[in-house]
Amino acid sequence: MIKQYLLAPGPTPIPDEVTRAMAATIVHHRTPQYSRIFSEARQGLKTLFGTQNDVLVLASSGTGAMEAAVANLFSPGEKVLVVNGGKFGERWLNISNAFGLQPIDLKVEWGKAVKVEAIEEQLKRHSDIQGIFVQASETSTTAVHPVREIARLTRNGPLLVVDGVTAVGVFPVPLDAWGIDVLVTGSQKALMLPPGLGFIGLSDRAWQRMEKAKLPRFYFDLKLERKSQQKASSAFTPAVSLVFGLKASLEMMQKEGLENVYARHERLARATRAAATALGLKLLAPESPSPAVTGILLPDGVDGEKLLDYLRDQMGITFAEGQDQLKGKIIRIAHVGYIGSFDIIVAVSALEMALSKFGVPVEFGQGVAAAQKVLMETLR
To answer: What is the per-residue pLDDT for 75?
Structure first.
């Protein structure tokens, strides 16, 4: 028997409490029983997003929430600025092109954070920019972008639209306090659920802008969805069992306390980075690393795809691969959602063993010891 450990940045492990909630007998979605659970979950989402406004729940992946942001807030031909520093920055670019916007492609080296000055320069050069699209945490490169600083540039200007898929529930991204206009995430990351729910919160300014936006929309019509969800229902058939699980996951996070949730993610990230460094490995994003996932560059001559296959099939450890130009060159170890200290110990020890199997000189326990020193901070 090989026990499986899921340490990729989505889907992530699911707690027993959430699994049991999703296994409850399903109810009809136009009943008081469902509306009560949905209302409680919606209130929890407001706290998580740091907003007094509605956070809408969509039966989709996080990409559905990204598309909804574009379709509901912009008009054909409008100019937008896309921070393109990874696979998901490219996704903003692709969605913008698909809906007939005019995106300005602000390329950022993979593994780096965008410079606020570069955005400021584009805003001065193009006074007609209507929106800025950025990731809070670029999952593909494991780098964090300076959303709070960008928001200071957009308070009286273009809408700031933020992909928070591996940020919301990992570190603070308060929509109201920072002046973010749109914040989206998905269920299968920090919310500890299976894939299938997208979430989107919008500022007052974004809701006002929606009145004059002219792009077509139907399923992702946020005005229609808001009207329904304010009545504890939804415009279309919801993912009922996932909403049951959502309520349970939010209750778990509230019980732990959001500040403790954020501290846990940061601690696990530091432990993972310390382990990689102790093993002589380089980090993909050393200057602005994400607390959700750590990217590690592999030594020359190591085939990353074969290494990941070996870890998964022979050791039961699932990490994530690199994407596009990073494919075969890096591994990504997640520490997001329902992942704890000893999951990191397992991950690091497995990495040591796998690297040794692939001919990399490794002193067993060196990475584990470095991680342990960080993780001991919470033991009394």
So the answer is: 98
Residue with tokens 């470095």: 370
Q: Are 174 and 50 in contact (CB under 8 A)?
A: yes
pLDDT band at 89 (very low <50, low <70, confident <90, very high): very high
The pLDDT tens digits of the residues spanning 99-156 come to: 999 999 999 999 999 999 999 999 999 999 999 999 999 999 999 999 999 999 999 9
d(CA 96, CA 130): 12
At 353-373, the pLDDT tens digits run 999 999 999 999 999 999 999
Q: Residue 4 in 3-state DSSP?
A: coil
- Largest separation between any pair of C-alpha atoms in the chain: 62
The pairing of beta strand 79-84 with beta strand 137-138: unpaired
- Show the tokens assigned to 43: 């209130």
For residue 376, what is the DSSP state?
G
Contacts of 86 (CB under 8 A, 6+ apart): 108, 110, 135, 138, 139, 140, 141, 143, 323
Q: Which domains does the chain have, with CATH numbers?
A: 5-10+257-378 (3.90.1150.10), 16-255 (3.40.640.10)
Q: Look up residue 207 and give its two tokens.
A: 């809701």
Tokens matching residue 292: 């959700």
- Bond prior to 299 in cis (omega within 30° of 0): no
Structure-token pair, residue 357: 């199997």
The pLDDT of residue 258? 98
Q: Tell me the sheet residues that pair with 282.
A: 297
Give the C-alpha separation, 232 to 105, whole Å: 39
pTM over 0.90: yes
